[in-house]
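Section 5: illustrative case.
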């Protein structure tokens, strides 16, 4: 998640902010509690809306800078419980994750599930993914980004996953709601929903080639790239956006990050994007090399999870495109822009399989809205 501000839509947000303040006054038993400044919406996040805020009239940590993360609707209660457990356990283990101070499933508060958490200091290692930012800081980026990303990931993977496993069990969170199972289910649901028979060979490859589970698993962030790493004064001050965290093979995290670096999903003119992709391949090599200096890892498993990242992003981009064609509405896309041909090509390089994202049947409004028994 990038922490660069954009204007708040007051008409959409004022009621939400008032409901939050009422909730906090009741929770903290401080009737005079107020906002020190109006909440500001932040960029970033595929499905959630994120605000920065600060309260007046409360003691620390409530008086410190805070982040409000609002889920799309109250049906995301399971996601809320998982993020809360992950962030608080990881913070307890000494890793710089934002501690969750308050949360609700939203039914009697905001109408949406939400998390209110600490705002970590610093700015994103990659300040958004704006091309101008990358070009003006290119030399330093080549040196620091892969090293810091690898060292941060290795530090996370060194944590004991058992406290998180126990916390998730206590919250009633099934293991399959995150990590490998979650992505296989989501790809299968997308293939069925949109009749994407041309993606079935890729799905079958992922199912058939799935690496055996390691006895020693790790806490995996699931989206640990430079936009989610905050730095200040030459050190990492925070890691944000824990919505995809799983207890899994560390190769899952490494492969997902390596694929993202290598394909460099960044906006810009085609000639510049080609240059950025070459730079991305260099960053991916440096990141992977540094990680392997720090921790042992199975290279074949890493390649498998690179291929999985391709399928995950491809099914999302294709379903968004088809939803837009069928209904005129699509999910808001954050700054990274994944290219379908690039994803297909990278998957083919690893798996030796060509994918075709063309639906077997033309999408219809009815077809685009129906659920799937595979989506869990």
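Designed sequence:
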């Amino acid at each position: 998640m990038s922490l660069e501000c954009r204007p708040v839509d007051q008409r959409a947000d004022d009621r939400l902010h008032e409901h939050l303040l009422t909730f906090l006054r009741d929770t903290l038993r401080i009737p005079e509690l107020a906002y020190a400044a109006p909440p500001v919406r932040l960029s970033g996040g595929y499905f959630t809306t994120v605000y920065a805020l600060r309260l007046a009239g409360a003691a620390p940590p409530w008086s410190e800078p805070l982040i409000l993360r609002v889920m799309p609707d109250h049906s995301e209660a399971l996601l809320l419980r998982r993020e809360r457990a992950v962030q608080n356990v990881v913070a307890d283990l000494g890793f710089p994750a934002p501690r969750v101070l308050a949360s609700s499933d939203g039914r009697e508060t905001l109408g949406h599930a939400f998390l209110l958490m600490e705002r970590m200091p610093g700015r994103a290692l990659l300040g958004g993914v704006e091309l101008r930012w990358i070009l003006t800081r290119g030399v330093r980026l080549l040196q620091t980004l892969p090293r810091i990303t690898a060292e941060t990931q290795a530090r996370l993977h060194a944590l004991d996953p058992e406290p998180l496993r126990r916390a998730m069990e206590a919250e009633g969170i099934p293991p399959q709601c995150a990590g490998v199972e979650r992505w296989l289910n989501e790809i299968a649901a997308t293939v069925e929903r949109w009749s994407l028979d041309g993606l079935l060979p890729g799905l079958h490859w992922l199912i058939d080639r799935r690496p055996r589970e390691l006895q020693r698993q790790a806490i995996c962030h699931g989206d640990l790239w430079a936009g989610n790493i905050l730095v200040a004064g030459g050190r990492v001050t925070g890691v944000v956006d824990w919505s995809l965290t799983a207890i899994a093979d560390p190769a899952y995290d490494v492969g997902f990050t390596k694929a993202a670096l290598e394909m460099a999903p960044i906006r810009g003119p085609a000639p510049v994007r080609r240059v950025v992709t070459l730079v991305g391949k260099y960053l991916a090599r440096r990141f992977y090399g540094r990680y392997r200096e720090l921790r042992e890892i199975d290279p074949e498993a890493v390649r498998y999870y690179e291929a999985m990242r391709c399928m995950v992003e491809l099914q999302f981009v294709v379903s968004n495109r088809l939803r837009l064609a069928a209904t005129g509405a699509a999910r808001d896309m954050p700054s990274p822009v994944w290219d379908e041909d690039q994803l297909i090509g990278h998957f083919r390089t690893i798996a030796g399989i060509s994918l075709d994202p063309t639906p077997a049947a033309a999408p219809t409004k009815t077809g685009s809205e129906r659920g799937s028994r595979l989506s869990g």
